[in-house]
Design brief:
Length: 959
């Protein structure tokens, strides 16, 4: 399971027995691969690191971006993707997997967009086997628990992944695996203490405490073992030694459990001599311990009263009470998130079962607030729930989340909440966990219904503000000009965000004095008053204006125009189009803005803006109306998206329209040379494309809006994001109607029909297909008419209206044959084959499908070819030609993997399961159907119902 700040091994269902012959993978030491007990050469360090990445998340897709980030961090070579492809090829040769090996436990690296998946029995990976043993130990009697945990600990062979210690992967993974070992060791010691083995443990624990002097639980176990062994003074001395060390190094005292143990030692509590009695709450071993808190902000100062109030909330937790809940509220930029993160990191040790974090995007200007269901999905994954086991219904997700957190001590930080209803489903059900929420609103509903403690944040007092200026800027500069520093703090209104920006200005130019910045800030008062914005203190505007006015005029122009960008992120090519310049110039401008802290670069070559800065840029545009033709700039950006989308879509499947925008952009399009790169571009830009379509529609640029929607069709057919699909096509239809464009109305209505048909709503699909058909009839264009008839035939077939479907399919087939359009003829043949199939004319259906197959191969339309091959397999199995059917489905799977269509992959696995069932091989059928079900569920496909029905029948037959 990947976390935001690290990488933890993904939990897997696995037995606790060691593997026999075959492959065995070792991560708990130097990376090793054994085949039948013999070590295999692994080649370069990069190949070893790549294999480790895949082994840490077996049977799950690891994206290409994540692999590159783990292997090269911030400096990947230009050929990074090619190097990864070659390393994967080398690893595949190492495994020697052939197609016949699929499904028999042989490890296999599968290409599955947006990356790779290592299909392997997780019990053959020592890290996952160790976790399985630790999970198995939970709830066993002390003797068996000690034995199983000792077996798990033998799997560690030395420093974890020590042969790739120079990679980011190592820095992310090694601490988690080391922590897992220590947790298991502590649990094994606890079991031994219950068995009365304190005499033997004293020496072992003494060495362990020396190795881990700040580990409170180990110290407590040593104190208990020493006390039981009659070494009372040694037990007390260990406590004082830890207390002094914690105070000197961290400025904290021992935790309440250790203090309680010490007090019981002082009074010679008889219960300490009972080996069977546990002296502390066991930590959760064998379950993922999420550590999702983003880094605490540097240079944090002040807020002593608020930190003390949060400490009291933590100290006053009462067993059996409702969830402990605190809300930090205040204006934008007042430092709610900074305070929340700082406190969360300070008290993380009090939550041994982990820390969860979610940015709820309550006041994001570009993206909708994060739905509670989405937040729960992310948190459940962090808690170790496999994606395919996460419930669909929100209530079920909430119930599972609360069940997992019952009796667990977890800190949940919910940042930037919009309202109480967004937060309430994310609250655990007991007081074992604590929830901290930040919001620009008070969230009184949480106070009334959930007993939340609200802590309003005010701006910083002058002394603290000056300290923040020093810590975030040039240390000592404020002391050299105390009066000017105090005036600067006042001009910034004590708002932390404004103070940090002002400090950055001082740090960027060490020769600038504080008084110089004060003078510049004061001169801008009238100007800043005109830039007043909602939900912001004027000090933020003042600080922003200082940074903005110091820019070179070209960079200032660029910053203002960035306010037009409808999406949340942007690239240099997009900015080049927006500004009417070339890509190198756009890159230089963005780097300059990043240095001025006006844009950020969260990923290499992808930039973004803080939401307040985005509003500020847009307000600048309003003030400077007439200085730029903003509409022309937005048109250039939209045209860029049109050009790149048109270029990229042609790698996914042949276009089914006459639109061609490839030469429309003024700036060169990004280098996209194959299907994988096309999908990668669409995946990265999809949120921006959705926002661009919305902006084009809202801005009256309807002649660009609906074509931009249409150019996403090939991508939508592969990825199937149903809600976005329907949303953008609805926008597109509105635009096509606004300009009364017949082609647009035909294509937009047809696209909505496809979305509803594929998401299991044929009645809705029929309504849109019928609208498309009516417009096509009015145009008199035979090609449009035939296309809409193919669609009508498809949906009427789904509705069981087979005679009507056949008429439409045959009419369309005649037109396409007259026009000589083999590509569209293939679509008509495929639909006609389905009608023939349901009417029992299987040989005729197969003949039509074989014709369509040849035509789609000729057109290199892989996504549709995979569909037709699956249809061939289905008909062949009905004809009792099981071997032929299985071969068709295998071909379909191969093609679907090549084009990245998850839906077609699932259909292939479904057909392979049908073939196995026809042969009487129920176990293979179950495995393949379960794979199909997992994919269909993940994609939200209604075909999951058919698979469940098959599995239910299979289970019933086995009883």
């Amino acid at each position: 399971m990947g976390t935001r700040d690290g990488w933890m091994i993904a939990p897997q269902d696995s037995s606790t027995t060691a593997p026999g012959t075959g492959f065995e993978f070792r991560l708990l030491g130097p990376l090793e691969v054994l085949r039948d007990g013999v070590g295999c050469p692994l080649g370069s360090g990069l190949s070893r690191a790549l294999l480790a990445c895949l082994l840490l998340e077996p049977n799950q897709v690891v994206s290409m971006d994540r692999l590159i980030d783990m292997l090269w961090e911030d400096d990947p070579p230009a050929t990074a993707r090619t190097i990864v492809h070659k390393s994967v090829s080398q690893l595949r040769k190492l495994f020697g997997a052939q197609r016949d090996d699929i499904g028999d436990g042989h490890p296999e690296i599968v290409t599955r967009p947006p990356g790779y998946l290592l299909r392997v029995d997780s019990d053959r990976i020592d890290a996952h086997r160790a976790r399985a043993l630790i999970n198995h130990a939970h709830g066993l009697d002390p003797a068996e628990r000690a034995r199983v945990l000792a077996e798990a600990l033998t799997l560690w062979r030395g420093p974890v992944l020590s042969d790739i210690a120079d990679t980011r992967l190592y820095r992310m993974v090694a601490p988690n695996l080391d922590e897992l070992r220590l947790l298991a060791l502590e649990e094994r010691v606890a079991a031994d203490l219950e068995l009365g083995r304190h005499q033997q443990l004293v020496l072992e624990l003494s060495a362990l405490v020396d190795q881990h002097p700040l580990r409170e639980r180990l110290t407590g176990q040593l104190m208990l073992a020493s006390y039981r062994a009659g070494h009372r003074a040694e037990a007390q001395a260990r406590y004082h030694e830890l207390r002094h060390r914690l105070s000197a190094e961290l400025g904290i005292d021992p935790g309440p459990e250790l203090r309680d143990l010490y007090e019981r030692l002082l009074r010679d509590d008889d219960s300490l001599l009972e080996p069977g009695r546990r002296t502390s709450t066991p930590q959760s071993v064998g379950r993922p311990v999420p550590a999702e808190l983003p880094p605490a902000p540097a240079g944090f100062v002040g807020r002593d009263a608020e930190l003390g109030a949060l400490d009291r909330v933590l100290a006053n937790r009462e067993p059996g009470a409702a969830t402990q809940l605190a809300v930090l509220t205040g204006t934008a930029g007042v430092g709610k998130t900074a305070l929340g993160l700082t406190w969360a990191h300070r008290v993380a040790h009090a939550f041994p079962d982990g820390q969860l974090y979610a940015s709820l995007r309550g006041f994001d200007t570009e993206r909708a607030p994060l739905a509670p269901g989405e937040a729960l999905t992310s948190m459940l994954k962090a808690l170790g729930v496999p994606a395919d086991e996460i419930p669909v219904a929100l209530d079920d997700r909430t119930a599972l989340y609360r069940s997992l957190l019952a009796e667990r001590r977890v800190l949940v930080l919910l940042d930037n909440a919009r309202d109480s209803e967004q937060v309430r489903p994310l609250l655990p059900g007991s007081s074992a966990s604590l929830v901290l929420v930040t919001s620009r609103r008070r969230l009184d509903g949480l106070v009334v219904r959930n007993g939340a403690r609200v802590l309003p944040l005010e701006t910083l007092p002058t002394e603290t503000a000056i300290e923040l200026l020093d810590r975030a800027g040039v240390p000592g500069k404020s002391a050299s000009e105390p009066d000017a520093a105090a005036e600067l703090a006042e001009l910034c209104g004590g708002l932390p965000l404004a103070l940090r920006i002002a400090a950055a200005r001082l740090a960027a130019n060490p020769a600038r004095g504080v008084s110089d910045l004060v003078h510049e800030l004061t001169d801008e008062r009238n100007r800043l008053h005109a830039l007043d914005i909602d939900d912001s203190d004027t000090s933020v505007r003042r600080a922003f204006d200082i940074s903005y006015r110091s820019l070179h005029p070209v960079h200032a122009d660029t910053f203002r125009l960035l306010g037009l960008v409808p999406g949340h992120t942007f690239t240099a090519p997009a900015v080049a189009a927006l500004c009417g310049t070339d890509v190198p110039s756009a890159q230089r401008r963005l780097r300059a803005l990043a240095l001025a802290h006006l844009v950020v670069e969260p990923r290499p070559d992808r930039f973004g803006m803080h939401d307040l800065l985005r509003v500020y840029a847009r307000d600048l545009l309003a003030v400077t109306a007439g200085h730029h033709d903003d509409r022309a700039a937005l048109r250039r950006l939209l045209t860029h998206y049109l050009a790149v989308a048109d270029h990229a879509r042609r790698f996914l499947r042949p276009p089914q329209d006459t639109l061609d925008f490839r030469g429309a952009a003024g700036a060169p399009v990004p280098e996209i040379a194959d299907r994988a790169q096309a999908l990668e571009w669409f995946d990265a830009e999809w949120p921006n494309l959705v926002a661009a379509i919305r902006a084009a529609n809202a801005g009256g640029l309807h002649e660009l809006a609906w074509p931009l929607v249409r150019l996403q069709f090939n991508y939508l057919m592969v990825r199937c994001p149903w809600e976005d699909w329907i949303r953008v096509y609805t926008e597109g239809l509105d635009s096509a109607r606004a300009v009364d464009d017949p082609a647009g109305k035909v294509l937009m209505s047809a696209g909505l029909g496809v979305a509803y048909a594929r998401s299991g709503e044929p009645e809705q699909a029929l309504a849109h297909y019928a609208e498309s058909y009516r417009v096509a009839v009015l145009t008199g264009d035979p090609a449009w008419l035939a296309m809409t008839q193919v669609n009508m035939g498809s949906v009427l077939f789904r509705l069981g209206r087979y005679d009507e479907a056949q008429v439409h399919c045959e009419d369309a087939l005649r037109v396409y044959r007259t026009l000589g359009d083999r590509y569209f003829e293939a679509g008509a043949l495929n639909n006609l084959a389905q009608v023939e199939q349901v009417n029992g004319n299987l040989e005729a259906a197969l003949a039509h499908l074989r014709e369509a197959e040849a035509m789609y191969r000729e057109a290199d339309d892989l996504e549709t070819l995979a569909m037709v091959l699956n249809n061939c397999g289905e008909v062949s199995i009905e004809l009792e030609r099981t071997e032929d059917g299985e071969d068709y489905h295998r071909q379909a799977l191969d093609v679907a993997l090549r084009c990245g269509s998850a839906i077609r992959q699932a259909a292939a696995y479904l057909g392979l399961g049908d073939a196995a069932h026809s042969r009487g091989d129920r176990q293979v059928a179950r495995t393949r159907w379960e794979t199909a079900l997992a994919i269909f569920d993940a994609e939200g496909s209604p075909r999951a119902t058919d698979v469940r029905r098959r599995l239910d029948h299979l289970s019933a037959a086995s009883c």
